[in-house]
Amino acid sequence: xxxxxxIARLTSRYPQLIRKDTELVVAEILDAIQMTLAQGxxxxxxxxxxxALNYRSPRTGRNPKTGESVSVPEKWVPHxxxxxxxxxxxxxxxxxxxxLLA
Length: 102
Fold this sequence. Notes:
Blueprint: H1 3-13, H2 19-38, E1 43-45, E2 49-56, E3 59-62, E4 69-72, E5 75-82, H3 84-95
Antiparallel strand pairs: 1-2, 2-5, 3-4
């Protein structure tokens, strides 16, 4: 699902919201998550999951095209861990036979 698909789904589900308001809400939520992570904090959405940062130490990698050694600097990368209700729901849906998913 893309951002525009999410906005379209919310707009159709809640007709009292105009598209501009829905776009603003989605942008604010995503911006709040980004800003919190950028400050080094984690974001927990109960029943959905947790966004946190993982540290990657500096290492030596390889350029796959040339095989040349390349220095990869240290960095922080965003990480998402799904919550138990989300994991269980996905597992339940994916274990159903395809003809029952419709």
